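Quick check before the chapter quiz. The format below is the same one you will see on the exam, so make sure you can read both the input and the output lines.
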Amino acid sequence: MKEYWNEFNDLKENPNPLSEIIAHTVDGIIALDKEQNIVLFNKGAETIFGYSSAEILGRKLNILLPKEIASSHHKRVENFGKSAKSARLMGEREILYGRAKDGRAVPLDIAIQHHPETNQVRYTAICRDISGRIKRERRLAVQKAKFETLFNSSNRLIFLTDEHGKIQEMNETACNLLAGYKTSFIGQKICSCKFWDSKFDRALLQQQISQLEQDNFSRISAKIISAERKYFSLEVTLKTITVETTAPKRIVIEAMDVTQLAEINEALRKSENSLARAQKIAHLGNWEWNIENNGLEWSDEVFRIFGRMPGSFTVTYPAFLAAIHPDDLKKVEQAVDAAIHHQKTYDIVHRILTPEGIEKVVRERGEVLRDENGHPMHMTGTVQDITESWYRERALAEAQAKAEAANKAKSQFLATMSHELRTPLNAIIGFSGSMQSEIYGALDKQYKEYADYIQQSGQHLLAIINDILDLSRIEVGTIDVRADWIEPKRLVEKPLKFISDRAQAKGITVHCQLDPKLSDVFLDERHTTQVLINLLTNAVKFSNTGDQITLGVRTSPDEVEFYVQDNGIGMTKESISKVFNPFFQVDMSYSRTHEGVGLGLAIVKELTELQNGRVTISSALGEGTRVSVFFPAPSDTAPT
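Here is the expected output.
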């Protein structure tokens, strides 16, 4: 032992290259003798363990070992000395820990060698403090875990490839989506993988990979198809990365599933096309006006309405005003001002002039969008070309006005002519009546029959003229309604008396049925009497000998019903739909057997509606007819 110390001191006093290396290396070098006493402890070991060589030389190695292994370590060293393997290199074993002077555990990577038993130095250990390396590895592990979490939790498909596009890694999203292929794509060139939808997409991706420069970026759109034949639209980005300066570049290929977005965009495109077609068909466009900067946005159809090519010029509010017909400009400006400042509805018809001078009529509607303070910000609306319909409606209105004027002139003419005809007709009826009464002397049988014919024909003609006169007065609007309270019983007495002789002459029985709950009604007596007379006259006219007719009055909470029912010849459904037309008759043939010109029910309908009533008919051919006239039930508030 003394000899070894002398040799070691000689090395210190007489340094050589080897001693310089041992003394100044950053690794700790520790030598042990046969008894495992420390005989060499260089500066590197002093730095690692915190002891000076003076404190450590001659002491057992256990001072540098954790307590839990110190007791067994001596035996392990002996066993190693007896083994055939003379050395253990760094990295061959797991991390070992030494104990520093301050008690902390020092992670070490150790190379150990045993020497021949004849040597003074039996064991040599080279220790390297790997605390920094472990910290770096832990940081790297944390970063790797974070990367893997982000890599695999992303909802995008991510592929890591080499510079030639050969797949090295795929995230879980990509693996799950492509799992149906039941094959690993790792190691394959991504452009050759069978999940691409088309050769074009593969070629495009290969082109982008080959043209991708360092730290460059590229984006393409492509489609893939799963093993289940489901298509996915992708937005693919490519980016080069370099892990180490000397390492080859890697490529990150990230694909975002935009299938739903693509479907939405396609649906939007179709919707916009449909809207554009619909606007073109309807000649209806939409616009939006930015009130603050006077900027206007027009749909394509608005451009066409104003005689412009879509997008052919910058649309502004002054440009819009310039296209308005000069005679309508003030009206439009006032309507816009009322909508913006007075919150009026913007709905206006006005004329415009195209650049070629063509005049069009348009209808505009719009709404004003305001901020929380009520300040106008935007105005949106529609404009429709109504030129054709506007002129058509104006022509129709003019034609209708002319027709109404002609109809009124006709009614006035008929009224005038009826009045003029009644004067000589009354004389004919009067003189024929005198002849029938033989006031001026006796007549022979032949002349008396002639007087009867003249009297009957005159009365018939007078009834027709009176009907024409009444209908004309109604159409012209010169007939008045003078309602008053009256008993229903009194209303039916005169019509029953009027029709009794005619009914008796044809052998027809007429009954009257009055609801016992009836109260007074508020009606025009003259008009209502005429309605009932006309209904009874028709019933007698279209009934046969032995038939029965019923005139009845019923009441309900809301209405009073006057009805006439017979069991005469009845009508078809087609006739029922026409019987209220003036001059319509059920039997329109020249050989018809029923007199009259078809004005009775037309007058009934008009006189009923003048009193806010309604008329209904139910009939069947060969079974009879029931005509009901409904008037509103009287109330306490009716005028007196």
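If your answer matched, good. Residues 588-592 have pLDDT under 50 and may be disordered.
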